[in-house]
Amino acid sequence: MTAFFSGLLRLRRGPWEMLATILIALGVFMLMQPFFLWAFTWSFLVTLVGTVMFIITSHFPE
Amino acid sequence: MHNPIDIAARATPRPVARRLRGLSDRAIAWIFVAPTIFLLLAINIFPLIWTIRLSFTNYAANRPNREVEWVGLRNYSRILTDADTWANMQSTAHFLIWTITFQVVIGFTLAWLINRKFKGNDLLTTLIVLPMMLSPAVVGNFWTFLYQPQIGLVNYAVEAVAGIPASSFSMLGPGGWARWAIVIVDTWMWTPFVMLICLAGLRSIPDYIYEAAEVDRASKWRQFWTITLPMALPFLMLAVLFRGIENFKMFDMVTLLTGGGPGNETLLTSIDLKREAFEKWRTGYASAYAIILFVTVFGLASIYVKALNKVKER
C-alpha cells in the first residue's frame, strides 16, 4: 500500500494506470447497474476521467 | 544485365528516379504511409471530432436550414438522467454478459473437444462454423420463424421436453423470454468464432510440454489448469475483446428478431441510438449518446488490452 502511494506521488506508471483502470471499471459498472439512477448519472464522468487518465498515465515512466 | 531489378530500374523514367534518389528512407516511408493517414483522418478522426462538436448543439439533420444553438452539456444531462436510457443500458449489459459467458464456455469446450485427432474432424469443424458465415439478416429472419408460437420448431421442442403447450407462449413476445431469445441466437451464431480462435490457441501449444507433464505424472485435470488454459488464455481474451466490442454495438440481428420489443425489453443502446438519430432526428442528442458509448467502449478496450499484454508477458 505504501509503495502504491509513493508511486502515485512520484508519478509512476503502474499505480496511476491502476487508479485509471479502477475508475474506468467503476464507471462502466455505474453505467450498467440496475440499482441507483444517481450512479448512472455520474457514470459517464467517472469513465471519462478514467479514460483520459489512462491515456495520459500510459506515458509516465515505469 | 537481365536481373529484374536492373530492368525495373532502367524502366523508371529518369526524372522520377533522380527525384527519388534525393529522398531519405524516412521521407519515402512517409510518402507510402501518407494516403492511409489521410484516409484515417478523413474517415475516422474528422467525423469523431464533428460528432463531439454536434453533441453540444441542438442540430437536427432533417432540418439543415434551422439555426443551430449551442446547448452546452444539456444533451449529456438529459441522456444521463433518463430512466429509459438507463433501462436500455441494462438490457445491453444483460445481452453482453450472457452472450460472452455462453460463447466463451461453449466455444472453448468445443475447441478443446475438436483439438483431438479423430475421423471426420475437418468435416465437423466446417459444419460447426457454418452459422458464422451466414448474414445476420438471414439469421434474424429464420430464427423469427423458429420462434413462431404456431409453426416454430423451438416451441414444439419445448412442448416435447417440458410439456408446455407450444402455442401458449412466445419467445419473442411478452413474458420475459425475449431477452434470452436474442442471447440464444447470438450464441448460436458466434460461438464458432470463439471456437476457431481458441482452436488456434490450443494448436499453438507444443506437444513436448504435455509430454513433460506426462513424465512428471501430472493428471489430465492438472495439465488442463496449468498448461492448456494459461497458454490459450491470450487467445481467449482476444475473442472476448472482439465479441465484447461487436455485441456492444449489436444492431441488425436484434432489430430483425424483435425490433427492440416487446415494449422496450430488448431495446439495446445501438437500436435506441439509431431511433434518436434517424427516426426522431435529434442529431445533437444522438451525437452525445454516441460519444457516451464510444468513451465506454474505448475505456474498456484500453484496460482490456493492458490485461492482455500482461497475460502475454507471463
Automatic annotation (TrEMBL), chain A:
Keywords: Membrane, Transmembrane, Transmembrane helix. The chain crosses the membrane at residues 16-36, 42-60. It comes from the Bacteria. This is Uncharacterized protein. It comes from Gemmobacter aquaticus. The lineage of its organism: Bacteria, Pseudomonadati, Pseudomonadota, Alphaproteobacteria, Rhodobacterales.
From TrEMBL, chain B:
Its main location: membrane. GO terms for cellular component: plasma membrane. It is a multi-pass membrane protein. InterPro entries: MalF_N, MetI-like, MetI-like_sf, Sugar_ABC_transporter. The chain crosses the membrane at residues 27-50, 95-114, 126-146, 177-202, 223-245, 286-305. The keyword NADP does not apply. Keywords: Membrane, Transmembrane, Transmembrane helix, Transport. Signal peptide: none annotated. GO terms for biological process: transmembrane transport. Residues 89-304 form the ABC transmembrane type-1 domain. It is found in: Cell membrane. Belongs to the binding-protein-dependent transport system permease family. This is ABC transporter permease. It comes from Gemmobacter aquaticus.
